[in-house]
């Protein structure tokens, strides 16, 4: 419905959602440079949650807010459930999808979260958006898909080009090796034409050379088979990554609905609700690590990677979730999630700053998303 009041204060929920969207867009660029050591998503989520809790405690003390304010059991239950689904389980799925699919696909899968949120919100609150707002949500998702899909297609084409170049380099290397074998054979032939025994030795050596060549051909075929098997394995991993991304979207939708209910019915401030949600998610991850006996270690190898990792935590948990909770206090969860899902547009803007190639379809997708978001907010 259109807003009756005027001024920036009337749109503070939408502005907060945009801030959260920007934070989500820049987070992958921090995390992709933030750790190089192999570790499970639970370890990454554990450190993210632990550091976030410490920072939130500092912020709560500095702003004279309470960690556990007085409120009803229902409000606490909603926030705990929101933290379990949206942060504990959801973020774990996100890290798994991120490692399998990469940052582009991880962001792309977030575009379906508004639809999940809208459906769950309708069942939970028995109210829904207008028809035009639903159309705007779909239009927004279409625009985001165009932006993220084009970027992913560029990555695939670049990978295919690299594979072809490697295959060409391998063929050139094989030809060079065969030429070297022929030259070596000719040299030995000139030196061993003195006696019959030497000729016999020459033929024996030729047979050995043929055997070596056959073995080399067999190794090349084996490499090709392994390459095919690797492709099949990648396809399975890709599908599994898609399922994990869908799991993230589903958990995120539940978390948004529960958090919105707690925000409009309880006495918590956005910072206090963010702290409790992160704390609940951290307890979940800690219990999982205890049962799975996952080895705990710092994911970054050096101080530079550690700074990137801490930057990712600050953008994701401190700025992203806090702004998200602020938006849920003022607007419906599906509206907030639709705006937050526009993070690929911010990724496109970051790409412009990095002087990446921008195509016409990127601009078209951005314009479509802006139209869709405008319909969700104002219609």
The backbone outline, from C-alpha atoms, is globular
Which percent range fits the helix content? Answer: over 70%
Mean pLDDT: 75
Q: Structural class of the secondary structure composition?
A: mainly alpha
User: What is the count of helical runs?
Assistant: 12
Span from first to last CA? 6 Å
Estimated radius of gyration = 28 Å
Total strand segments = 0
Would you mind describing this structure in some detail?
The protein has 379 residues and is mainly alpha-helical. It has one domain. 82% of the residues lie in helices and 0% in strands. Helix 2 crosses helix 3, helix 5 packs antiparallel against helix 10 and helix 6 runs antiparallel to helix 7. The longest helix has 70 residues. It is globular and about 95 Å long. About 9% of the residues have low confidence.
Task: Show the helix and strand layout.
Layout: H1 12-31, H2 41-62, H3 73-101, H4 103-109, H5 113-125, H6 131-191, H7 196-265, H8 270-292, H9 303-328, H10 333-340, H11 343-353, H12 360-378
Helix pairs in contact: 1-9, 1-10, 1-11, 2-3, 2-8, 2-9, 3-4, 3-7, 3-8, 4-6, 5-7, 5-10, 6-7, 6-12, 8-9
List keywords for this structure.
mainly alpha; 82% helix; 379 residues; 12 helices
Short description:
The chain is mostly helical and 379 residues long.
């Amino acid at each position: 419905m259109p807003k009756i009041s005027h001024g920036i204060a009337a749109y503070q929920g939408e502005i907060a959602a945009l801030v959260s969207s920007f934070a989500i867009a820049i987070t992958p660029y921090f995390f992709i440079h933030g750790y190089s050591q192999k570790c499970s998503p639970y370890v990454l989520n554990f450190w993210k949650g632990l550091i976030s809790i410490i920072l939130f405690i500092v912020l709560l003390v500095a702003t004279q807010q309470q960690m556990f304010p007085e409120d009803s059991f229902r409000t606490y239950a909603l926030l705990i459930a929101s933290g379990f689904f949206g942060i504990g389980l959801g973020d774990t799925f996100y890290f798994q999808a991120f490692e399998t699919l990469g940052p582009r696909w991880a962001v792309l899968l977030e575009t379906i979260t508004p639809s999940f949120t809208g459906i769950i919100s309708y069942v939970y609150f028995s109210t829904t958006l207008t028809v035009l707002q639903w159309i705007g949500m779909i239009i927004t998702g279409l625009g985001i898909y165009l932006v993220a899909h084009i970027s992913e297609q560029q990555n695939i084409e670049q990978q295919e080009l690299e594979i072809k170049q490697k295959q060409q380099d391998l063929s050139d290397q094989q030809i060079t090796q065969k030429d070297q074998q022929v030259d070596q054979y000719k040299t030995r032939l000139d030196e061993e034409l003195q006696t019959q025994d030497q000729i016999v030795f020459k033929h024996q050596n030729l047979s050995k050379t043929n055997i070596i060549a056959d073995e080399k051909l067999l190794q090349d075929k084996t490499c090709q088979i392994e390459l095919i098997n690797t492709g099949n394995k990648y396809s399975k991993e890709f599908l599994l990554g898609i399922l994990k991304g869908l799991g993230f979207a589903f958990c995120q939708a539940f978390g948004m609905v529960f958090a919105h209910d707690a925000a409009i019915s309880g006495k918590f401030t956005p910072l206090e609700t963010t702290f409790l949600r992160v704390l609940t998610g951290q307890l979940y991850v800690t219990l999982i690590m205890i049962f799975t006996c996952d080895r705990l270690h710092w994911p970054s190898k050096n101080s530079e990677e550690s700074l990137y990792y801490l930057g990712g935590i600050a953008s994701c948990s401190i700025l992203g979730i806090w702004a998200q909770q602020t938006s849920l206090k003022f607007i419906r969860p599906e509206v907030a999630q639709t705006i937050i899902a526009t993070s690929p547009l911010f990724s496109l803007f970051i790409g412009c700053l990095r002087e990446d190639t921008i195509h016409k379809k990127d601009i078209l997708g951005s314009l479509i998303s802006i139209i869709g978001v405008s319909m969700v907010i104002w219609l």
